[in-house]
Specification:
There is one protein chain. This protein has 109 residues and is mainly α. The chain has one domain. The chain contains five helices and two strands; from the N terminus they run βαααβαα. It has a two-stranded antiparallel sheet. The chain is flat, with a radius of gyration of 23 Å.
């Protein structure tokens, strides 16, 4: 009997470290080359938000990295769990009157 392992990509998983953790010991270095236009763009944007160019690039890079990695989580299911998971996904949505009513309400101002 062959064991079947299925991989499923989870749609959401994001871990964000607190700013204090990011401000901890910084020992890694990244050197990069940018065009003069990009350099000016980064400098202007950093100035607008009151950050150094390094702070701006690190925060921007961290934000993008977290977004990219957020949907890359995977989990493993055995055959019977996969069948149950797949069946749950294939079932028609259940209409909940309470949710329908809630969605019809005007948005609070």
């Amino acid at each position: 009997m062959t064991k079947l392992t299925l991989y499923v990509h989870c749609g959401y998983s994001c871990r964000t470290l607190p700013d204090e953790a990011m401000a901890a010991t910084k020992t890694a270095r990244r050197n990069l080359r940018v065009s003069p236009t990009e350099d000016m763009l980064f400098r202007e944007a950093a100035a607008v938000v009151g950050e150094s160019v390094s702070e701006f690039l690190v925060a921007s890079g961290r934000e993008r990295a977290e977004m990219i990695l957020a949907d890359r989580t995977q989990f493993v299911l055995d055959r019977s769990t996969w069948k149950a998971f797949s069946a749950a996904l294939d079932r028609p949505a259940e209409v909940k009157p309470e949710v329908v009513e809630l969605m019809r309400r005007p948005r609070p101002e």
